[in-house]
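Entry 14. Structure prediction run on the chain below.
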Amino acid sequence: MRVGRGELWITVHKKMMAPISMIKQEQLVKEKPGRVRGAGFGPTPTQLFGSNSHVPGNGVEVEETQRKLLALQAELEGEKLKRKKMEDEAAAEKKKMQAMERDLIYLFQRQSEELP
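Output returned:
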């Protein structure tokens, strides 16, 4: 029976990786939640951005983003109003057409009754 290259690689590396994976599992168990893993150098995210900050950015960026959001919301409301107006106009036209259709049917019925 011939063993493929992939199977051979998996077999060899599975044996080699077993001790490493056990070490990683032990490290994961010892870790405390909320800690940042690293080599122990450089500032932590809390030192850079503060404990309550989740997204880095300055006040100008936040204000600009809020301004754009408000502009987009206003534009959306305007488009909704346009759509509502068009739907109302279409409904009114449909009612007119239905009324005209009823009138035509009535006229044709009357005309056919008057024929000899």
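Residues 59-114 form the longest helix (56 residues).
Filed with the rest of this week's runs.
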